[in-house]
Design goal:
Layout lengths: L2 H14 L5 H8 L3 H10 L5 E3 L2 E3 L2 H9 L7 H6 L1
Antiparallel strand pairs: 1-2
């Protein structure tokens, strides 16, 4: 394989694994920015502070959603 192919594969991986902003994660989940901030403070949504900014890893947020992080009743979320 040529080096341009390897660079393209690497670039795709880096885009998928990059840190997401509040705007990006809210668009991904289909909720408002304020909801994201509320989930960080009240529902332990996985977020990392970088200075004054909150940043997210998509796989961490996906895992949090799957175990019922958004749900008021975590047992109900796991059973579904």
């Amino acid at each position: 394989m040529d080096s341009s192919y390897n660079l393209t594969i690497f670039s795709i991986f880096m885009i998928e694994d990059r840190w997401l902003s509040v705007d990006e994660i809210s668009a991904y989940l289909g909720v408002k920015r304020d909801t994201i901030h509320k989930w960080i403070s009240e529902k332990a949504m996985p977020a990392h502070r970088i200075g004054r900014l909150s940043k997210f890893k998509k796989d961490e947020v996906d895992g949090w959603v799957k175990v019922g992080g958004v749900s008021d009743n975590k047992k109900e979320a796991v059973e579904k």
